[in-house]
């Protein structure tokens, strides 16, 4: 059938970051595009229960607790002493509402049709939409699945949406708990553990692996653990949860080792499950794995050439930023347009307190691959801006090739890490060397100056090595 025989050139299921960018990308190519999404989920998981709420919550915690200012005003400093859930959620709900309107406006401005309802495949080119009071079928030449994920819930755990919750339920707590067990030390688990610890909750993190955030720089992870312990976080690594019992006074989490941990609330962060169960993938000739994820190739095509999948539903790295780019690229590939992906220098941002961000390779990866490198470090306490903002613990690390002087990795820990990493990313993407960071002028006083300090540090080490070259 010719493409003109379909209702749309591109149909997207899901309006999260990946779905938005796929539909808008197609529209900018002059194609007819539509997005199918449930009424109460415009903007997807990202806007409603994931990235936007959790990051807004983090900002509210930082502000109301005065945590970032205690270096200057003392450890007892707080903006508000009795912080309530309502204090935190007021800011969160405001931002969510604004973001939903931004998504709607962007789709409308680009002439992308928004079809409200739940979509499922009827055949490889047809999607049935069950909406409020109506049922319709839409055909499309190309389809992008961008349905995102939902928190995985172990079958042996009884979730009651009050005492035992997942990362969605944590946003609906009626009060800030005095104590909490966080099961799982992945990105989401550690982000929420740090937020509640900052609020004064006694947090215990249980993780079956021997380490947390294994994909990050080990020195940065150790720094984060130190600061979380300073906020009274207890870590139980190499431990598995055997059962969680709910009583009138809270919960008791029993570990396989026999330890019992009492807490007011338990939050499970046991990974994510792809939202594919009701999609009717079999009708399109597709299938998902045991975690509901869809397999794609380098162009984000599934095993059915005209069906693409992007975002969390395809697995790692499952970040809003990478999902956006995947959606953009999928729409380009769908219509045979040239596309370039800088996958090797995609940044990773982890919004713990303090935050972490990195780009490129880690010391562990370089060592395993026998790639020589030298390290340059700058510490925020040596920067005027670090003193001004009250951050004495932050650091920036550069990994540099002694042979080419190119930057192999950038790792940042502390205030503004997720923003600062982009300077190093840009230099890496343009093939620049550490000499650019030495020669350029940074505004003063800024945290960006950390790049120059780290660049000078590594340059001095390389100069010392050069003296021994025979």
UniProtKB/TrEMBL annotation:
Residues 347-454 form the Pyridine nucleotide-disulphide oxidoreductase dimerisation domain. Pfam families: Pyr_redox_2, Pyr_redox_dim. Binds 1 FAD per subunit. This is Probable soluble pyridine nucleotide transhydrogenase. The keyword Oxidoreductase applies. It comes from Jiangella alba. Keywords: Cytoplasm, FAD, Flavoprotein, NAD, NADP, Nucleotide-binding, Oxidoreductase. One of its GO terms (molecular function) is dihydrolipoyl dehydrogenase (NADH) activity. It is an enzyme of class 1 (oxidoreductase). It comes from the Bacteria.
């Amino acid at each position: 059938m010719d493409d003109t025989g379909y209702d749309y050139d591109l149909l997207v299921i899901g309006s999260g970051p990946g779905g938005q960018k796929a539909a808008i990308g197609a529209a900018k190519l002059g194609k007819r595009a539509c997005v199918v999404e449930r009424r109460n989920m415009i903007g997807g998981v990202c806007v409603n229960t994931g990235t936007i709420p959790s990051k807004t919550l983090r900002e509210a915690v930082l502000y109301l607790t005065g945590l970032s200012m205690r270096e200057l005003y003392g450890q007892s400093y707080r903006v508000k002493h009795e912080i309530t859930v309502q204090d935190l959620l007021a800011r969160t709900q405001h931002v969510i509402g604004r973001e939903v309107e931004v998504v709607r406006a962007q789709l409308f401005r680009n002439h992308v049709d928004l079809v409200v309802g739940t979509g499922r495949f009827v055949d490889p080119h047809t999607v049935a939409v069950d909406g409020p009071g109506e049922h319709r079928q839409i055909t499309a030449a190309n389809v992008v699945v961008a349905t995102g994920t939902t928190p995985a819930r172990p079958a042996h755990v009884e979730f009651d949406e009050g005492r035992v919750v997942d990362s969605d339920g944590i946003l609906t707590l009626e009060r800030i708990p005095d104590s909490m067990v966080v099961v799982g030390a992945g990105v989401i688990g550690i982000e929420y553990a740090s937020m509640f610890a900052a609020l004064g909750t006694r947090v215990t993190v249980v993780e079956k692996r021997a380490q947390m955030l294994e994909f990050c720089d080990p020195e940065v992870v150790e720094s984060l653990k130190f600061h979380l312990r300073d906020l009274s976080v207890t870590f139980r690594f190499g431990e598995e949860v055997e059962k969680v019992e709910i009583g009138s006074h809270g919960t008791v989490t029993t570990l396989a080792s026999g330890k019992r941990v009492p807490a007011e609330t338990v939050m499970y962060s046991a990974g994510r499950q792809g939202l594919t169960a009701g999609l009717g993938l079999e009708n399109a000739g597709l299938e998902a794995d045991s975690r509901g994820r869809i397999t794609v190739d380098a162009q984000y095509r599934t095993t059915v050439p005209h069906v693409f999948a992007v975002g969390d539903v395809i697995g790692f790295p499952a970040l809003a930023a990478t999902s956006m780019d995947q959606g953009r690229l999928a729409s380009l590939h769908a219509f045979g347009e040239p596309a370039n992906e800088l996958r090797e220098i995609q940044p990773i941002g982890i919004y713990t307190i303090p935050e972490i961000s990195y780009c490129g390779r880690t010391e562990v990866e370089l060592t395993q691959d026998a790639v020589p490198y030298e390290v340059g470090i700058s510490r925020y306490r040596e920067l005027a801006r670090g003193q001004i903002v009250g951050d004495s613990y932050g650091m920036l690390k550069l990994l540099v090739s002694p042979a080419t002087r190119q930057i192999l990795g950038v790792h940042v820990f502390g205030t503004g890490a997720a923003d600062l990493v982009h300077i190093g990313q840009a230099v890496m993407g343009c093939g620049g060397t550490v000499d650019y960071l030495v020669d350029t002028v940074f505004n003063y006083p800024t945290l960006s100056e950390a790049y120059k300090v780290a660049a000078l540090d590594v340059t001095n080490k390389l100069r010392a090595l050069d003296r021994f070259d025979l």
